[in-house]
Structure formats: structure tokens, C-alpha cells
Amino acid sequence: MSNYSRRDFIKLVGVAGATSTVGWPLIASGKKGGRVVIIGGGFGGASCAKYLRKLDGSLKVTLVEREAKFVTCPFSNAVLGGLYKMDFISHSYDALRSKWGVKVIKDSAVSVDAAAHKVKLAGGKTLKYDRLVVSPGVDMRWNAIQGYDEAASQLVPHAWQAGPQTALLRKQLEAMKDGGVAVITSPANPYRCPPGPYERACMMAHYFKQSKPRSKILILDAKDKFAKQGLFVDGWNKLYPGMIEWVKGSEGGMIDRVDAKTRTVYPTFGDPIKADVLNVVPPQSAGAIALKAGLANKDGWCPIDQRSFESKMQKDIHVLGDASLAGKMPKSGYAASSQAKVCAAAIVSSLRGMEMPDPSYVNTCYSLVSPDYGISVAAVYRLENGVITGVKGAGGVSPKDADADFRRKEARYAEGWYLSIAADIFG
Prior knowledge:
By secondary structure, the protein is of the alpha/beta class. It is about 30% helix and about 25% strand.
């Protein structure tokens, strides 16, 4: 990543990214103190921890996270494609501790007592809170596809939670013979990172083009359309002609069953398909602790007050990121971080008896079609009648007829976006 492109990126998104913090320095006056516990140290939880302390240094903020490092789903597809190593997408919590004064506990939350304002940890500790933030990401809905459970994922990875699953899928791609077929299954909406399966196909194709040029990729999709579809298909035709095939749900893309041992998928309609590498992205729900805490509806997602992100199911508990039902905002890392800043402002305002600033929300999503071919979508959101809605005329999608230089710059901006958001949260 050149310094030029990163500076350009910051100029482009810096103003939009700052909109949700306008007026925040005024919040940290008045009454002091208070305890906030945050469950989950991803884009939402870690951002919220930092910005709570940034807004009000008198708050005691405790972050509970089971992993020593956070491994991001953004850019994990680029690891699969061989562009980066796992270290690039792995981030420690050292700066949150040393620079921002957040207490980070490496443990898992096993239960929440909403009435008593307590969280119990697997290690035996009980944490009391004035406000609780739950940002657990997603969990896979095991056996939503017959035969695909947690044990099966050790043979047929989903890699939709980055880390060991990413490494396993990369290892399988490396071991695959030239001329083999990699099959990706994509679920119905909603799920984490709507464009993710299609960027993954691009990164697999980039790797195959370099190392296994006779190989193919088949995408079996439960949907009949997908995010940034025209841009992806155009990129496939230009860079990987004949290598990637997409099958929509109404024409055989939906699957009913998986045999992990033989790497075979059974579509709802049509014959079984045996893969050399099988990547099943199953249906998802809010992370398990959100379900246990009574924060989720019957569909497995968490209804919230979209102004403050406070749960509609439990008082004094806020839910961020992929687990929440946040109006028109997608389930993405950047959206979670944007939500976290608004949530931090809401919590500090409430604890201090002050009026919360009017919220603004932002999302930017880059996808790599190749190392030198990027596409993007960006949007600004506001609250209308209690619902997060897109601002017409704000943001936009990469132009379909862009030239090679434009696509190359977008790929560089993608890396700039990642480095910038990682530095903001973990730096």
C-alpha cells in the first residue's frame, strides 16, 4: 500500500467517518463514573470500548473476549487468495489496555442476569454493570443444512469466523489438484458480509489462475441475486473467463444436505455434486450469548432501539454489529464500528443525564476481484421515524464502466480502508 493511496483514502472517508462524532466532546462533562461491560472484542465491541473511554475517561470499561487476538473476517478472503498471511488480519488488544485504559479479560460470558445487572464468565468471575454491550458477532446455525454441524466444519470449513477456519480452508485449496472443483455454498439473507461469498470466489480464482489454472469454482446460492452482482460478474468475465459458475436458488442453488466425509452437497433440485474442496457458508444467527441472554427474536436476531442500540428485549443492554437488526445497515465490520460510536455516545449521554447527539451512521464495503481490481459500495444512514435508513444521494457504488486504472485505485483504497479502520480500533 503506497502512502499516496492511503492518504487519498483518508481524505475521501475521513469527513464521513467523523460525522457520528460531531459534538461528542460536550458529552463528557457532568456526573462521572459508571461501569460498562462489553461482551465481544470485534469491530463493534472493541470500537465501543475505545470510544466510551475516549468520550468519558471516568468510565470503568471492561471488555470480555475469549481470544487473545481478534482475527478479522475483512481481508480473510485475501488470505485465502494468497495475498496476505494470517498476521495481517490478526490484532491484539494491547492498545486498548495501555492507551485507553480498558480492562480486557480473556474469557467467555456464559450467562447474563439482566435484572441484577450481572455477567457470569466461564472462568468463574461475575461482573457487575450499569450498562452492558453485547457484540457477539454471529454463530453458525448447525444442522440448518442436514449433515452440517460443528464436527463437519472441521472437514468442510465455513471460514465465516476468521482464524483456524481460514487456515484450514487455505490448506485445502493448496492441496487441491489442478483441474479440481471448489464449491462454495451461500445462504439466504440475512448473514454476515453479503458480498463475502463472491469476493471469496474471486480470491480463489486468483490463486487458481496462478497455481492451478485448469480448476473451476462453483457457487451454489440460496438467493436469486446478490450484493454488487453486476460488478462481480463483469470482473469474473474479464479476469476469470469460464472459471467461476454461479447457480441461483431457483435454478438449483439451494442445498438440503451435506456429506462432509465425501465433500458432497445435495441440492434441493438436481443431482448430488462432489467437490474437491467444499466451503459451506451456512445460515447464521446472533452469537450464542445473545440468545442465552434473551436478546434475540424467534429468527435469532436482536431487535434494538436504532437510535441508541439498546435492546428492545432487556433494559440497559445494548446490542451491536452483526447480531443486531439495525434497519438498512448491512452486517459488516465497518457498520459495526460506526454503530459502536453511536452506541458509546448514547451510553455516556444516558449515564450523564444529557441529551444524545443526533446520530449518523456510515458503511463502506470494498471487495477485491483481484489484487489490482477493486469494487466498492458506500452509504450514509440517518434515523427516520426510529428506523435507520439510507440517505439518498450519499455514498454510491463503483461505476460499471470504470477503466483499469480506476479498478486498480479501488484495490489500493481497499487496503487503505482496512489499515485505517484497524488502526482506529486497535492502534
